[in-house]
Amino acid sequence: MATLAKGADTRAAILARALDLASVDGLEGLTIGRLAKELEMSKSGLFAHFGSKQELQLATVGAAAERFRAAVIEPALGAPDGAPRLRAIADAYLAHLEDDDYYPGGCFWAATSAEYDDRPGAVHDAIAAALDTWLGELERQAGIAGSPDPGRFAFELYSVVMGANSRFRMGGDPIVFTYARDTIDRLLSELPD
Amino acid sequence: MATLAKGADTRAAILARALDLASVDGLEGLTIGRLAKELEMSKSGLFAHFGSKQELQLATVGAAAERFRAAVIEPALGAPDGAPRLRAIADAYLAHLEDDDYYPGGCFWAATSAEYDDRPGAVHDAIAAALDTWLGELERQAGIAGSPDPGRFAFELYSVVMGANSRFRMGGDPIVFTYARDTIDRLLSELPD
DNA sequence: CTCAAAAACGAACGTTCGTGCTTTTGTACA
DNA sequence: TGTACAAAAGCACGAACGTTCGTTTTTGAG
Question: Is the pTM of this model over 0.90?
Answer without folding.
Answer: yes
